[in-house]
Amino acid sequence: AGQEVYYSTHQFFFSARALYVIVFNMVGGEENTRLDYWLQTIKLVAAKAPVVIIGTHADHIRCTSDVMDGYNDQITRFKSRFKVNIRGFFPVSCKNKKGFDPLKAAIVATARDPASLLRVPRPFTLLDRFLTAERVFTVPPVLSMDMFSYLAHECGIQSK
User: What pLDDT is attached to residue 56?
Assistant: First the structure.
């Protein structure tokens, strides 16, 4: 759904509780990456969420060190312009598998960093466990509002 016709629907799928991975083809040139669009969208919906940027086709003849430096400079400019939490730029090649080890390490480090992703408060994780267990015993898996309110209260979630 990267086509322009779907852009207006993207906002419905963005969340502050996510790691965003932006992937683009480095052979297309800086003007064709749409990095600015994606970073602006993330800024509007989830400015503090971590972002990893991946440039593909690093093995292509046109992806020289000057081209890589240009993308690094562009991402540095975007970082200060959009004020988003860019965790790194990773050029990769699917042909020779170059660049995947540092990318994997960055994703794992980000996922393990408690400060990088918002955590779900304990009462809500308890409620999720209750609801998952209840689904096994209730056919069809439907709860009344009273039962849901009771479970939420038992988990420490107060209604307003």
Answer: 93
d(CA 9, CA 22): 17
Start-end of H helices in 1-160: 7-10, 35-46, 65-82, 100-112, 122-137, 145-154
Q: Are strands 50-56 and 20-25 parallel, antiparallel or unpaired?
A: parallel
Q: Tell me the C-alpha distance between 31 and 16, whole Å.
A: 27
- Cross-sheet strand order for the sheet of 50-56: 20-25, 50-56, 85-91
pLDDT tens for residues 78-96? 888 888 888 999 999 999 9
Average confidence (pLDDT) over 110-121: 73
The model carries a pTM of: 0.69
The DSSP code for 157 is: P
Mean pLDDT of the chain: 84
Tokens of 150: 């009771």
Q: Identify the CA nearest to 78 among candidates 36, 16, 26, 49.
A: 36
DSSP state, residue 38: H
